[in-house]
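To the team - flavin mononucleotide complex, inputs and output below.
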Amino acid sequence: MNDVIRLLKNHRSYRHYSAQAVEPEKLRLIMEAAQAAPSWVNGQQVSVIAVRSEERRQQLSVLSGNQKHVAEAPVFLVFCMDFHRAKLAAELEGQPFETAEDVDALLVGAADVGIALANAVAAAESLGLGIIPIGGVRRNTAEVIKLLQLPQYVFPVVGLCIGYPAEEQPQRPRLPMAAVCHEEIYNPDQLGLIEEYNVVHRESLKAQGLTERDWSSMIARFYALNPQYGDAQRTLKQQGFTCRNLNQQ
Ligand SMILES: Cc1cc2nc3c(=O)[nH]c(=O)nc-3n(C[C@H](O)[C@H](O)[C@H](O)COP(=O)(O)O)c2cc1C
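Output:
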């Protein structure tokens, strides 16, 4: 196994950070790694807002559902899907611009953001920093958009806390590989694999002195309580992502 794969396989998320600042040079390297990610048609449909201000981190912590680690980590990156530059390019070239209104824009934006996020995570971890992604930024996107002054065609998808971890964190076990990685065609017969994972999941929680819970019970409960997460239904439209059918004008 090489060093990159060892690093990727050693990932864990941290929810407590020391007050030690993140060196500007390290932050720059993380941003460079994020920007080096591949993107759909080299459109680079991602923008990353680095939030260091304590006041703004505090506000984002509240907006993300009172997640204390967002205020505690010295740096909070907000990864946005971004078609603002594509719109400017269209204006520059005198071309029509409708693509952000197609539902496919959401897939493009989410994929570009995900790849950039993964690069940033790996870069941060390689520099001895700890991270945790924050989907909580999707809870109150109307407020996040206002706070970060995001223009039309820019939408916050995920945040990333970065800092020096204040405590050790064990690794979370993953599903059996056969549930996630399929050979040639998709295999929907996964109940046995989930039951297998439930045992591993319970044991992992027990080893940490936490209440033993099945993975399936945690996931079922989360999605039952949150069938719709956040206010994106409304704010996506406000930002220009209307998901209208462009073939039926
Ligand atoms: C897109 C995304 C959004 C996430 N949002 C949150 C969040 O808002 N709050 C949180 O505590 N953890 C969040 N996480 C962290 C996951 O809970 C964590 O990655 C998962 O439990 C696996 O643990 P590990 O990262 O330590 O392996 C998020 C992870 C991802 C990939």
